[in-house]
Specification:
about 140 residues, alpha/beta, globular, five-stranded parallel β-sheet
């Protein structure tokens, strides 16, 4: 049985999130998804629109997800130590980044691998947030 893992904030859930989860699940028998807690998201200078308790329920409800867990730290190897996954899935927009090359090496030592999945062009939570900010700003005027 191949266990996969991916993680993200999953704020303002959109097609890019769904594509990642669908593609990841197609490459493993069990998919565990780490949903970033509000505290960790704020550390990354993001203030989620949707609270953690709701975001994890949205992810948990997705048919491609076998289990959703709190991501309480950004270290993907620490997640491996807890979950012992075989494959770590991430968007290919991270391909070649030094931090992900380091994860590739460290995970290879324990028999796990990083798999880069196609990033969905044209949609992102950041873009959705900017649009909401404009709309709300206009509503206040």
């Amino acid at each position: 049985m191949i266990t996969g893992y991916t993680a993200g904030v999953y704020d303002l859930f959109h097609m890019g999130h769904l594509n990642l989860l669908r593609n990841a699940r197609a490459m493993c028998d069990k998919l565990i998804v780490g949903v970033t807690t509000d505290e960790v998201a704020r550390y990354k200078h993001k203030d989620p629109v949707i609270p953690f308790s709701e975001r994890i329920e949205i992810v948990r409800s997705c048919r491609y997800v076998d289990a959703a867990v709190a991501q309480t730290e950004l270290d993907k190897f620490a997640a491996w130590q807890r979950l012992h996954y075989d494959r770590l899935f991430v968007g290919d927009d991270w391909l070649g980044h030094a931090s992900w090359k380091a994860y590739e090496s460290k995970l290879a030592e324990v028999g796990a691998q990083v798999i880069y999945l196609p990033y969905t062009q044209g949609t992102s939570s950041t873009k959705l947030q900017r649009t909401l900010d404009v709309i709300l700003g206009e509503a206040k005027a």
